[in-house]
Amino acid sequence: MSLFSELSRNELEKLHTELLGQYEDYQGRNLRLDMSRGKPSPDQLNLVSGMLDVVNSTASPLSADGVDCRNYGDFDGIPECKAIFCDMLGVSFDELFICGNSSLSIMYDAIGKMVLHGVRPGATPWCKLDRVKFLCPVPGYDRHFAITERYGIEMIPVDMTPEGPDMDTVERLAASDASIKGIWCVPKYSNPDGITYSDETVRRFARMKTAADDFMIMWDNAYAVHDLHPEHRDTLINILDECKKAGDPNRVMIFASTSKITYAGAGIAVFACAQEVMERMKKLLTIQTIGFDKMNMLRHARYFKNLDGIMAHMDKQAELLRPKFKTVLDAFERELGGKGVASWKNPTGGYFISLDVRDGRAKRVGTLCKEAGVTLTTPGATYPYGKDPADRNIRIAPTLPPVAELEQAVALLCVCVQLAACEKLLESK
After folding, report:
1. What is the mean pLDDT of residues 262-266?
2. Does 353 lie in the same domain as 335?
């Protein structure tokens, strides 16, 4: 089909009637489908059912260093579990700390500690400053933005590029304003674009000049092992190593978890950082907790054994997820391609597909889908304060629904994208 913008008014009216008929048909099906959050499917969760059996009433509760995991000890995590994450993130034992089930809670807590206490050596607690700002790559992760907003930190959007955040803008802003204290990053298979930061982007982060001497890169490596195509894994160079080479290892905190590897809410999460920041974090954490769930650490370590075990498991996950991503991307190409009504990213990993509709139409698409029984991530959620200035980005989460349900949901979505575009064009003709 021709570009919608090239159609005459009569052609648009005819098309609108056709699309409205298709939409009303979907409304009559009483659909109840959800593509709003990046949740693992039951099939993904079933892959690790055996993990529930490796630590039972007859199993030894002792960690590799002889600590009884039922009791106190190994404050920063048991060694066999630390070894897996150290290999995954490319850090040393002294640079890694294992917490509870959620990296999001660690990030929330880390920002809180920066606000109340300061984390980098000699840093002034941000609560004592008149103004604190954070850079936020967009489109980005809504829960990062929620954390920042909760602490009263002003957010500054920075556009994403195929190489990662627009580093010319990041460098200019960070160097010119001492109230800018950090940046959020999802460096591999970014949420929602699926972009992996280039080597040059990572090196520029490590080398860049900042007006704030306590600037912190919040490196949320949530999808470190979430490759959709194991034969073509994206590579991400080590940000902590690059910061060390540049002479400022204290400027980054790395986060990861098994929330989408094993069980959401019953996984384990970690942070990694240079030893000076780690010492500060440990000092603060000793007041906050006597230790995290070592039995769960033991369960994960005995089930996977090492990073190879994790990767073999993630290859099985990829087999389940590839058909779902293909279902969505094929539908977009078939139904929306060449019409000038939408563009999208083709991710090779992660959990999301980023869809851009015509400017000013994302909220309308969301409303149309909802009224026909399909729930999307709220348009605007991928921007600070929930405000997409162009009103065009929609995050698609294809992981949870079965393929049959996903086919229906994306078919309706494609109708809604076209209908919303057609409505807007008719207003101007």
Report:
1. 95
2. yes
